[in-house]
Each structure stands twice: as C-alpha cells, then as structure tokens.
Specification:
Length: 526
C-alpha cells in the first residue's frame, strides 16, 4: 500500500510496545492521522479465573504503553498543532472491554478511519477472529492490514527444497541461519513518523480520565507482586541483566537452582520486547564466538519453528502432529484422576517434580528444563494424556504461548515434530541428581525436605534411616508423600502403552487424519 490515507487505527494484541513495531510503523507511514487501541477481549477473558497473572501483566504493560504513546506524540513538532486542535486531548491508547469482533468495527465507525493495522497472530482462534473482523470492516469501507512482527521468519519464509514446511528442527535451523541477514533484525523507525499520532477525541474517550481501566473494572483482581516485571521497562531490565550472563547461558540454562535463563519468555509472548532486538543481539554475539549466545539464539529459532508448525499444521491443536499417536490409550478412571491431581498439586513424592509444579502454581513460571521433566513424568510415568498437561500449563503459565506450549508437550509425548523417541523416558531421580545436585531448587519449593542431606533429597523414600533420624518431624508418607508410582514399573507400562504404534496401519492413520479438532480444543486455542 503506497497511497497515503487520511486516518488509520493500530490494533495492539500480542505486541505491547511502542518501539520497533511493524503494524505501528506501517500505519504511521501510510496515514496522516493514527490512533492506537487495545481490546480486553471477553472472548478470551471470560473463561479465565478472576485472579490471573497474565491479565495483571497485560494491564500493567498497557499503562506503560499508553504513557509511551503519549510521550511519543508529544516529542514530535506536530504535537502542539494536534493538541490545540483537539482542545487539550493527547495521544495515547484507546482501551475497550468486550468482544474484539464487536469493539474494533465499532471503534472504526466512531473514528471514521479507512484502515486497521495489526500484527499477525497465527493461532487458529485468532485467525478466525481476524477473518470476522476483516469482513465487518469491509462492510464499513475499511481494510485490515496485518504484518509479521512476533517472529523473525514466519509461515512460508523458511521452506525445504521442495517448498514444504520443515518437520525437523536441525535442518530448519540451518536454513534459518543461512537466510538471516541484517535486514531481518533491523528495527522499524517509529519515531520518524510519530507526528502522525493523533489526539484521542473526546467522543471516544473523555479528556483527563484514565485510559487504561483498573483490573477490577474488567472483573479481575490484582495478584500482588509479579515475579516477572511488566512492560517495556521490565523487559529492558531483564535484558540488561541477562547480557551480563549470556556468554555462559549454554553452561547454566539447565540448572534451576542458579540464575541461568533470560526470563524474557513472558515479554516475548506479549511483545513488550522486540524479537528483532533479541535475535539481533544474539546473532551478533554468536558470530563473535559466544557459545552461550549461540545456544540462546537456537532457543529463539525453536520459537520460530513451533510457530510455523502451528500455521501449517493447525490440527496440532487437540491432536497429535504425528497422527498415529492419537491411537494411544491413556490412563483414566479414579486412580488416574488422583494421580493427575497429585501432579498438579506438587505431591507426587518425587521432589524435583513437586518443586517444579509448586514453582508454577506459586509464581506462574517454570524453568525450561523442569517443563520437560514434569511433562515426561505426567505422560510416561503416570500415563496421562499430554493434552491434560498442556491445558494445565495453558491455565497457569504467565508466558503461555499456544505454539510453544503445544510443541513442548508434543515433544515430551513423542507425538510432535522432531520429538524425543517414545521409548526415551526421563528418570525423575536422575534428572534431579544431575540438574539440582545440591538440592537448592528443591529446598526452595519443598521446604519440608530442606533439612535432609543432599544424598537423601532426590529420592527421600530410599533415604538411610540415619539420614531421616537426624531430621526432626519429617516422616515420609506423612509430612511428604511416598511416590505415587515407582518409575521402573511405570516405564514398563509406558513401553506397553506405546507399543500400539508398532501395529498402526496406514488405514488407522488415514482415519485419524479425517478427524477434525473438537470444539473444546478450538476454544482452548483462543
């Protein structure tokens, strides 16, 4: 689109920042007047509990975004002209609470804009929403333009030699690295066109009143302290801290008891930091020889990989990527329900698994290594359907992202692309001894075991009587549970459960491929 239009609206979604923002840049460049909006979408929010860390994070980030957009408009020479013409109104963020399918067309009609600019969202529910909005806007004589923003390469940008999507990570990564050049990590120069930001008219929002509603106004309650600082400033603080540690990331990332990760996943999810900024920093440092930066860049590439899998294979929402894995019969009944609840509560009797689940429940965050450990335990020790674990993470994780969450759970279940072999089963005791050898992480989240010596901490039911005798008031089975399953026995059952894959026929797989995702699975994607 090259012809300049009179006015446009930028629809913020998973991109809550005012810098290096594709949709904002294109709107400012192509329209004389630009307004910015965010919708607390009730289609997404209504099913959530009223105490939700993600909604709190979004609200805090929106307050900062609103302030940044107002400051951005005021810094430009055209700001005084706009302000005087609008009787004291300023630039900023227009916030609505309702269904985005209704609120965006309504706002377009109120403002009389010719176009809405937004960034891509490849989740199936988001694609359906955007298609609906596009139709509504067409009826109003307006257009919806969307841009790539939340990944470096998307959709069909990295394909195999026969123009098909990659299903294995390593060749995808190699093709990704071959394609990358400075153009793809170059920031969008928002400031150059900031003068096109227009003051918010009083008919849309009353001058002098808060533009971002409090959580209570949209039916939610504050969660208190967030372990992850919100907004663009929170992302920058975490990035500044991580850059002092990035060169050792490859050595520290697997150990939950030490400060190894970047902790930026939530900011990537909600777009309070630019993926171009992060990938550019990692790529430059990797080229300079930093092994830590190379490993971190690989993690960012995994993120791109899972998003293109979701785009090309939307059936993964509710079904296995490898169709034959839907033939597996998962544990069910009262015993399975009790096991699932014990897993959710962090009461399995395996200290590392329990510490990880308690971290998730208490903070909304879980260390990446531990996500693999607890997923393997649920699926391959307890025999419970991976989709149940995926849904629990979707409810609890502050950084929940459908593509990455689905990809990670299917990796653990061996049903996904480039997943671990189905016969590879994590031993939770070995994982504990290897990645939390001194029990620093376990002691933090399972304090009832804190006084045990290191050698007894990873499998306390096997502890020497002398180790337990030296600890006052700790009885295994009373103060901390006995293991709900024995790993060796559970492993044998899992190998038997997965044996159905050996006899799966092409006819079985074709029948599964004809199945459509359930309505429940589709709703979960939203």
């Amino acid at each position: 689109m090259t012809e300049v239009i009179d006015s446009a609206l930028v629809w913020f979604r998973r991109d809550l920042r005012s810098t290096d923002h594709a949709a904002l840049y294109h709107a400012l460049k192509n329209a004389r007047r630009v307004w910015c909006a965010f919708v607390f979408d009730t289609d997404i929010l209504d099913p959530l509990p009223r105490f939700d860390r993600r909604v709190d994070f979004i609200q805090r980030s929106l307050v900062e975004l609103d302030q940044a957009l107002e400051a951005l408009g005021q810094q430009h020479p055209l700001a005084q002209l706009h302000s005087s013409a609008a009787s004291g109104a300023t630039t900023g963020l227009i916030v609505r609470h309702g269904s985005a399918k209704v609120e965006i067309p309504k706002l377009v009609a109120q403002l009389g804009v010719q176009a809405v600019y937004a960034n891509h969202d490849d989740e199936p529910a988001a694609q359906a929403r955007d298609a609906h909005v596009r139709g509504q806007l067409s009826n109003l004589g307006a257009a919806l333009f969307t841009s790539k923003d939340h990944v470096i390469f998307e959709r069909n940008e990295v394909l195999t030699g026969n123009d098909s999507p990659y299903g294995v990570f390593t060749p995808y990564k190699n093709a990704w690295l071959k394609k990358i050049d400075p153009f793809y990590v170059k920031p969008y120069p928002i400031e150059r066109f900031a003068g096109h930001l227009a003051p918010i008219p009083a008919k849309v929002h009353a001058v002098g009143t808060p533009r971002v509603p409090a959580l209570q106004a949209i039916g939610f309650e504050p969660v208190g302290e967030l372990k992850i600082p919100a907004g663009m400033s929170g992302a920058q603080a975490l990035l500044d801290d991580f850059l002092h540690r990035i060169d050792h990331y490859d050595e520290t990332r697997d150990f939950p008891g030490i400060k190894g990760p970047s902790y930026l996943s939530t900011h990537l999810r909600f777009g309070t930091v630019s993926i171009r900024q992060l990938a550019g920093l990692a790529w430059d440092r990797a080229k300079a020889g930093s092994a830590g930066a190379q490993t971190w860049l690989s993690e960012l590439i995994w993120r791109d990989f899972y998003h293109q899998i979701l785009f090309h294979h939307p059936h993964v929402v509710g079904h296995a990527y490898k169709r034959e894995y839907d033939l597996i019969k998962w544990a069910h009944g009262s015993k399975a329900e009790a096991h699932f609840q014990a897993w959710c509560d962090g009461r399995t009797g395996y200290p590392l698994v329990d510490a990880a689940m308690r971290q998730l429940n208490q903070t909304g965050y879980m260390h990446n290594r531990l996500r693999m450990v607890v997923a393997s335990f649920l699926i391959k020790d307890l025999g419970i359907d991976w989709r149940r674990g995926e849904a629990y993470f979707a409810e609890k994780l502050l950084d929940f992202d459908l593509a990455a969450n689905n990809g990670g759970w299917q990796w653990a279940a061996s049903s996904g692309c480039d997943a671990q072999p189905w016969f590879r089963i994590f031993n939770p005791i070995n994982q504990s001894e290897k990645f939390d050898p001194q029990g620093k992480f376990i002691r933090r989240y399972v304090p009832e075991l804190a006084a045990l010596p290191d050698r007894a901490l990873h499998a306390p039911w096997l502890a020497r009587p002398s180790d337990l005798a030296s600890v006052d008031d700790v009885v295994i089975g009373r103060d901390y549970p006995q293991p709900i399953v024995m790993h060796d026995e559970a492993r044998a059952e899992t190998l038997e459960r997965y044996a159905v894959l050996k006899t799966a026929t092409d006819k079985d797989i074709l029948k599964l491929a004809r199945k459509k995702p359930t309505k429940k699975a589709a709703n979960k994607a939203g």
